Amino acid sequence: PERIALGIQQPWAELILRGVKTLEIRSQPVQLRGRIYLYASRRRSPLPAAHAAVDEFGLQMESLPRGVLVGSVEIVGCR
What we know:
This protein has 79 residues and is an alpha+beta fold.
């Protein structure tokens, strides 16, 4: 079936797939609930917190996939 894809910068997409990051802050609320695809955007997160997360979880930023669908997640709520 057709599904929506949510674009997330790395390393956040990887941390979502690992179950480490369970909340996603967006500028607009979403009414959609259910399973959606997770797209690792081509752009890496420039935030200092992203660099800290890479170090904390032992990730290799250069090896994380970008520009592809990486999995699916379940949207269960929005506030």
